[in-house]
Amino acid sequence: MPDENTELAQKSHWERWTGEDGPFYRACAVLPFDSVKEPTDETATEQPAIQFTTGITRLLLRHLPTYLGVTMVLYFGINFTRAIVTGELNFALPEATLRGGVVLIGGIGVGFVWAYLVYRLLASVIRGSGMHRSMMFFATAGPLIAGTAYAVYHALTTTGSNGDPAMTVQAGYFLFILIAGHLIYDGLALKTENLFMRLKDTSIVSRPAYDDFYSELTSTLGDTLTVGTISIPRSVAFALAVALGPLLLPVIVSPWAGWGEIAYLVYAIMTLFVIAMLYDVFLLVYKFTELLQRDILTYQPFHPDDHGGFRDFGRFATRINVILAVAGSYVAYRFYAEGLLNLPEGGIEPTLLGLTWVVLYIAPIAAYAALAVFWLYHSFWRLHEKMEEGRQRRIEELQRQSESDDQQPQRDFSDLEVAAPAWESLRDAPTWPIKRQGLFGILMMDAVPVVITFV
């Protein structure tokens, strides 16, 4: 019977270190039902020393539903109000009367009381179940999906290239953040941190080589930059250095237009957060490719996960690929919802206007295609090569051992049937970190954003 250490070595570590479970859309916290800090009580497992992201970026990522909800209310609320005031949208308001004012105030008061009573009744039931997280995710995703669909419909039905994008065009951007943010927090933060921390207890890594790599990892991911008495995450410093100037330029050079600038600033802060997350994701991906380059991982042909012990790496690579596909879907959506309407009247010509259009709408698709190919090679294919190399090395070891045994005097057996050499059983050992059908699905998913853009 396997001992405790053996069972620990065979266990999958692609799970949240907080002890919580459920689908990815239940990963992020929702105030006021969840604690501001990540759970570290007796129900949670040991908190990893490694952190994918730290400081303000991690706080916003954990509370993405709340942060995104506030941003959307401010952004869309201001823009719709401005459209009504300027006459772009016709919205007939009822005539203001004393009776109407009293009814309105009373209705608002009753509404607040009703909402508070519902909260008190449901809080004890859904707290800890994760139901409130699912409700928040789909309640946010539903309107965003509707706004995204309308923006595409508006772009496809508008004749000519002089039309303006729909007012809901940014719904696709916020939908991308909602889905990708939950995927990142669930996989790259809670699960990947647990995976890298627990790898040292498995049989697929060589120690102390992995201990050295893990020490480098903890000092690199989530690193902070200190300026005087102020300490900020390097991802935030990167976002401020790269994008703060370009984002503030329209506000600086344009005349003050009231609430419009406030809505834009809210949008710009969200964009800075996205860029900071991209920095952290890039750094994690870089360290993962470095792990594959070093002589640290050890292939185990008969590992219980049926993937040579590399199944959790396949899951990590799949999660990165899904996030990449979500980003590709957004740039394809942006091409249809904005690019078609902003296409120059004379078509794409070698002018500054034509070059700008290509950079804004074609270059992101090309960048996505390049990143997808890069990741397919440096994750799934590199893992496949690592597994194939490990299998071949093990076969050669058993062949040498078999040749050595053949030189010994043979025993007499009454049974004339001789078993096949031990290395023969390794010919069918797995050499991919995921199932072949899953790999085909990933290839199809990666191709969709590119194909639909140029159809």
From TrEMBL:
Annotated coiled-coil segments of the chain: none
Residues annotated as transmembrane: 59-78, 98-122, 134-153, 173-190, 236-258, 264-286, 320-337, 357-377
Keyword Transmembrane applies: yes
Keyword Hydrolase: no
Entry keywords, A to Z: Membrane, Transmembrane, Transmembrane helix
Protein's recorded name: Uncharacterized protein
